[in-house]
Amino acid sequence: MKIHTKKKTYISVSNNSSSKQIICDRLCEAIQQTSAGDDLKALRYDPQKEIVHADFANAYDARQINVAMDSGWAMIKDIVNHIDIG
Questions:
Q1: Within a 10 A sphere around the Cβ of 54, how many other Cβ atoms?
Q2: Fewer beta carbons below 10 Å: N end or C end of the chain?
Q3: What's the structural domain count of the chain?
Q4: Given this model, what pLDDT does residue 9 score?
């Protein structure tokens, strides 16, 4: 009997700001696949201010989310809680 296991893949980058932008890019793609988030255009990480800019089709819906000192998981939770889609 063969047992197949799913390997975890990890993002390997040299600095934290690059990994945070990668998280933003992938999270944005996932949110865009939902009917509630199809107007989300981009999640842009600003490493100097430690803020994520959420850009929507309607510019008036733009958000700025403070992710200072956040781990990757905490950043995902902050973004999802603050973009208020749906």
A1: 23
A2: N
A3: 1
A4: 53
> Look-up: residue for tokens 């009917």?
35
Residue of 56, 30, 28, 29 lying closest to 43 (CA atoms): 28
Q: Closest by alpha carbon to 50, among 26, 72, 27, 66?
A: 66
Contacts of 59 (CB under 8 A, 6+ apart): none
34 occurs within a structural domain? yes
Secondary structure, 3-state, 23-75: HHHHHHHHHHCCCCCCCEEEEEEECCCCEEEEEECCHHHCEEEECCCCCHHHH
Domain extent at residue 38:
16-83
Question: pTM of the entire structure?
Answer: 0.78
In-domain check, residue 53: yes
